[in-house]
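Appendix B. Raw example, untouched.
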Amino acid sequence: MEQGTAEQQPRARAWVPAQPGPAAPRRHSVRAQVLAALRRALVDGELTPGEVYSGPALAERYGVSATPVREAMQQLAGEGAVEVVPNRGFRIAERSSRDLAELAEVRTMLEVPAIVRLARALPPERWEELRPLAASGVAAAARGDRAGYAEADHAFHQAVMSLTGNRRLTEVTGDLLRRAQWSAAGGARLRTAELLADASEHTALLDALIAQEYTVAERIAREHVSVARHPH
């Protein structure tokens, strides 16, 4: 990161979430709850790309110590959602349309061949087991719940990739999807109909895989992963 003058450095902003955080969460789940709240705020656009937010202000808002907030933000930094600004807080990462297109291209290179291999290797009943995950995504999309759909979308793709048995592939593709979600978070909001269209592609993919329509399944997978227009 380039060094700038004091005038060029952004001022940290205190952020107050639109919805109140959990009251007196259990110690072992504090970090998870803070992380979930921050994920939702990122996807919903409550945190503005380019802005720096104060860690202590977040900790005060949730009624927790600075440690779980710092740990959650460090994880988000690892996912490319935020950047650490020493002695100030965390800057919400800014992404361009080129960033999103490049992420989509890499995901296509990894996920589509994996799905093609799995299509011929797994029996239909294994794909049927993923129906609840696809249905969860459709339900979130129908509510217009961007954050809920982002989580459902991530869960579905992770479940598909985990069928390969390759933990590294599952980890890498999951990280790429998170980065795509954060990249698009500050962009224009998609309508509920557009969310549903994206969610319905999961269902269509399962239908093709269960019917053993391999060419159709590959086409759906390629279109779904390669187009840099995810609503997250």
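End of appendix B.
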